[in-house]
Amino acid sequence: xxxxxxxxxxxxxxxxxxxxxxxxxxxxxxxxxxxxxxxxxxxxxxxxxxxxxxxxxxxxxxxxxxxxxxxxxxxxxxxxxxxxxxxxxxxxxxxxxxxxxxxxxxxxxxxxxxxxxxxxxxxxxxxxxxxxxxxxxxxxxxxxxxxxxxxxxxxxxxxxxxxxxxxxxxxxxxxxxxxxxxxxxxxxxxxxxxxxxxxxxxxxxxxxxxxxxxxxxxxxxxxxxxxxxxxxxxxxxxxxxxxxxxxxxxxxxxxxxxxxxxxxxxxxxxxxxxxxxxxxxxxxxxxxxxxxxxxxxxxxxxxxxxxxxxxxxxxxxxxxxxxxxxxxxxx
Length: 331
Known about the structure:
By secondary structure, this protein is α+β, with helices and mostly antiparallel strands. 29% of the residues lie in helices and 24% in strands. It has 7 helices and 12 strands. It is globular, with a radius of gyration of 24 Å. Residues 310-330 have low confidence and may be disordered.
């Protein structure tokens, strides 16, 4: 199962409505074109089945699937620096002067342009799922900057399309801290053996547990001292394991044994329709169950509760923390 590994979920604005054929036609204007010799980056939509000249939008069981391609050329910094040093040395030897900072910057940019046609390209393909019935957009990305780029492309391509991040009435960090403190996760969910706890004071201390039991006094003491859970490994209904983050992202998704029973017909390793049916079927149940576990979806403009459920509140409260900046680069 490789359709989704990490997901960021958005709420599609209720005013948007478009038929498959119209959406497919609109996406053609942003079909991916490989980088030219002097082009540093290119993005666009590609056929999700991988078929050359295939449709950019597939509908499987009423669920729309797209795939976004990112190509970027990168130059080793050491190569650029070496070329720059050679050029600076040549100028000093022939003209008897040392170029200033502005000229050095311009020289460096010239060198990068000259080397770009020889640079290696790196590619990333990102699966996107549009659930029109439940007004959800699911992007297979762990990096917020990449997800934002894809959302922007959809907004530009599809007339009237708009989304917003899903916010819950209880902040994920507060809920996860409560579940760890009481060892009482919500119904259908279980706590696994990995988590990350962060202090909210000036120390910014971080404690991580990996492959470790979490129902221990040490974890509860960390929470009571003011640390908050920012990541927690969980399993839903013995069907999907994942890591929940304080930003309501689902990472390290694994579809467990038995989920392939949701696929129509015989499951094959290369069966695109079966993979999509499994992923959208399981996530279509997991996402609303998780939102319910976090108090339900918050109305636009309201503020999420920065408190744990009453039965989960530790003796020492913890102040709010801002959502983390993503540490992962687009590549």
